[in-house]
Design brief:
Layout (H helix, E strand, L loop, with lengths): L1 E6 L11 H4 L4 H14 L3 E6 L3 H10 L6 E5 L8 H10 L3 E5 L21 E4 L4 H18 L1
Parallel strand pairs: 1-2, 1-3, 3-4, 4-5
Helix pairs in contact: 2-5, 3-4
Bound molecules: ligand CA2.
Length: about 150
């Protein structure tokens, strides 16, 4: 089983800026945690980050026939991107939306996710553990898709 983790804009800054909001864990640290958890399920991980909306759209499209599940932290694009939403609904690969923070407990503009309606579900508010939980969610979603 292959899980594609995609990370949106500014997540490359994790652990280096605004530690009071996003903690001190870097994206590399999170990737290591994800790989450790995925190894327990013998799942393959592809883990990427981009600040460019179109690059994320291209990666979603290219996942056809390569990834079984996509786990997406679209960061700020969560709240703005019709292009990402259309890409997710266009490819037919089950996608799980994740966030480090609880977007529903933050500013009003973060309460709306344009991608949520085309995702299988959402995991938000558990910091780096949102990513670890997403590995398990991906296994469940993949099993459900095959049965
Ligand atoms: O909680 C999340 O995972 C978010 O997707 C993070 C996004 C934010 O726009 C979403 O509303 C919720 C922000 C990612 C930017 O991360 C930074 C990390 C360090 C310094 C500055 C930004």
């Amino acid at each position: 089983m292959k899980i594609l983790f995609l990370n949106g804009p500014n997540l490359n800054l994790l652990g280096q800026r605004e530690p009071e909001v996003y903690g001190r864990t870097t994206l590399k640290d999170i990737e290591a945690k994800v790989r450790e958890r995925a190894a327990q399920f013998k799942a393959d991980i592809d883990f990427r980050q981009s600040n460019v909306e179109g690059e994320l759209v291209n990666w979603i499209q290219d996942a056809r026939g390569k990834a079984d599940v996509i786990v997406l932290n679209a960061a700020a694009y969560t709240h703005t991107s019709v292009a990402l939403r259309d890409a997710i609904s266009g490819i037919g690969i089950p996608t799980i939306e994740i966030h480090l923070s609880n977007i529903h407990a933050r500013e009003e503009f973060r309460h709306t996710s344009l991608i949520a309606p085309v995702c299988k579900g959402q995991i938000a508010g558990f910091g780096a553990n949102s990513y670890v939980l997403a590995v398990e969610a991906a296994i469940i979603v993949n099993g459900a898709a095959k049965s």
